[in-house]
């Protein structure tokens, strides 16, 4: 399994000292769970003052929902380290690279949700050069997020513009 762990460690964008340490794949539930751990003896920067190389002072087990891997729901589980800073004296939870603090979703998952909510409408009738009042076609900037692939989605506007947008998932 070492190769598979290394593959998914890379697929999740993780780097040392973090790595995928277990993968549970439930075909019937269409669900895949990843355990992410950090190497024993790892040290982290203090989130409060930035002092590097602080020792771990306990962990907090957490779970995040990630983007689907094909049709499978994906979850990341990790023991998030806390450090007791030898410089400022504070005990703080280290941030994880895949999620904002206290969010239950990874940043990629949040970016996809934001894209679905704000994505520009694609008019179905070819040649429909409707004006764009209110700038609805302006694509939001998600510079702090990775950009999910937009091509898998199609959108259909309902009869009345205020009736909202129907999103149809083609996967
Ligand atoms: Zn500190």
From TrEMBL:
Identification of the protein by name: Transposase IS204/IS1001/IS1096/IS1165 zinc-finger domain-containing protein
Coiled-coil regions listed in the entry: none
Region entry Disordered, spans: 126-171
Matches recorded under InterPro entries: Transpos_ISL3 (IPR047951), Transposase_Znf (IPR029261)
Lineage per the UniProt record: Bacteria, Pseudomonadati, Pseudomonadota, Gammaproteobacteria, Chromatiales
Any matching Pfam family: Zn_ribbon_ISL3
Residues covered by the Transposase IS204/IS1001/IS1096/IS1165 zinc-finger domain: 43-88
PANTHER family given in the database record: TRANSPOSASE FOR INSERTION SEQUENCE ELEMENT IS1557 (PTHR33498)
């Amino acid at each position: 399994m070492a190769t598979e762990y290394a593959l998914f460690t890379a697929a999740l964008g993780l780097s040392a000292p973090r790595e995928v340490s277990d993968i549970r794949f439930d075909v019937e539930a269409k669900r895949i769970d990843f355990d992410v751990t950090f190497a024993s003896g790892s040290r982290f920067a203090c989130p409060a003052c930035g002092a590097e190389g602080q020792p771990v002072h306990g962990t907090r087990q957490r779970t995040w929902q990630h983007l689907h891997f094909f049709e499978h729901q994906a979850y990341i589980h990790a023991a998030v380290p806390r450090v007791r800073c030898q410089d400022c004296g504070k005990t703080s939870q280290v941030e994880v690279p895949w999620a904002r603090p206290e969010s239950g979703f990874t940043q990629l998952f949040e970016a996809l949700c934001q894209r679905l909510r704000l994505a520009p409408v694609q008019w179905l009738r070819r040649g429909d050069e409707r004006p764009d009042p209110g700038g609805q076609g302006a694509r939001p900037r998600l510079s702090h997020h990775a950009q999910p692939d937009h091509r898998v989605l199609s959108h259909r506007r309902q009869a009345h513009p205020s009736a909202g947008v129907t999103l149809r998932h083609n996967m």
